[in-house]
Amino acid sequence: MTQRHIKKDPLAEIDRSQHEEIKQYKWIESEKLGKDIGWERARQEWLAKHFPAWKQDRWQRAIREADTANVSLN
Question: pLDDT digit string (tens) for 33-46?
């Protein structure tokens, strides 16, 4: 059987990446406090503290990837 190239859904990838970042934040902050801070608190804190920088990084990465793809086509 041949493997087909499956196009990734960029929105699903962004959602997955954000979820992983919040999960990591939750683990780190829970370890610091010695107790589970819970998903909702972790999500709210991560959004307030880290989302703007994360969004900027994702945007810059998307631009670099588009530039790379553009160069490959020429």
Answer: 999 999 999 999 99
